[in-house]
Structures are given as structure tokens and as C-alpha cells.
Amino acid sequence: xxxxxxxxxxxxxxxxxxxxxxxxxxxxxxxxxxxxxxxxxxxxxxxxxxxxxxxxxxxxxxxxxxxxxxxxxxxxxxxxxxxxxxxxxxxxxxxxxxxxxxxxxxxxxxxxxxxxxxxxxxxxxxxxxxxxxxxxxxxxxxxxxxxxxxxxxxxxx
Length: 157
Hints:
The longest helix has 26 residues, at 14-39. The protein is α+β, with helices and mostly antiparallel strands and 157 residues long. It has a 5-stranded mixed barrel with strand order 1-3-4-6-5. The protein has helices at 14-39, 50-56, 139-148, and strands spanning 64-70, 76-78, 81-87, 92-98, 110-117, 123-130. It has 3 helices and 6 strands; from the N terminus they run ααββββββα. It folds into 2 domains: 5-42; 46-147, CATH 2.40.50.140. A hairpin with a 2-residue loop joins strand 2 and strand 3 (81-87).
């Protein structure tokens, strides 16, 4: 009795092994991505507005970034000690910072401050970043708009 030459060996083929490895890697990558996103879900936000801080009931001492506008008439500077109020129009949070503030820092201007809330609800900033005005347009974009005839400067020229 002769054996047919087409008897298949037991086990997985090379293609099946490759697909199993790829599927396994995809599961590991998906699991790792999920774990990272869950761990960072509260830190992915670039900054919290004063309303967000109140709504989320951020605990004192929790490091966050607070963003908004420096309220007009609120900035008081005594040497390197600065106190100001950050507002989003709905809520205000008093902030304190010791150090030299950026050149663009001024009342009515956007600001992002890194730090934490103190026990009294005052934001103790460790770093302050002043934001440029919202009308900033890079030079390259202005040139492209001028070339296309779409440039409309603020002054209505």
C-alpha cells in the first residue's frame, strides 16, 4: 500500500503563523494605547478654564494648567511677586506667581499658567505662559493671502 504524496503535516502553515503573530501584536498595541489614554484622560486637555476647574472640583495641590484672560485691573506687582485674576468670562480664579513674567503678559491678554490650587482656592503658579493675541497670522500666510488677493488687514485697508 502506497501513501499519497499530498498528505498534509499536522500544525499551522507559515501563512497562518504569520497572521497569528500580526493579530497578537495588534491586540498588544490596542491594549497599550487604551491603558495610556485611560491613564492620561485628565491630562490630555491643554488647559482648564476657571469654569472647568470649578465644575471638575479640582483638589488642592493637583498640578494643572489654568488658561483664560488676565482680568482688567487685577494685576498687582510687588517686586517679583505677582498676583492677578484669570477669567473666562463666567468664573474668576485669583492667581499668584513669583518670578519674572513674559513680555507679552498684560491685562486683557490670554495666559496659561501651570501650577496648583492652594487650600484657600488661590492658584499658585509655577510657570506662566503669555499667549499672543488671537489676530496673529504667520508672515507666510499673509504673503500667500496677498498673492491671492484675499488679504484684508484689520484696519480695512
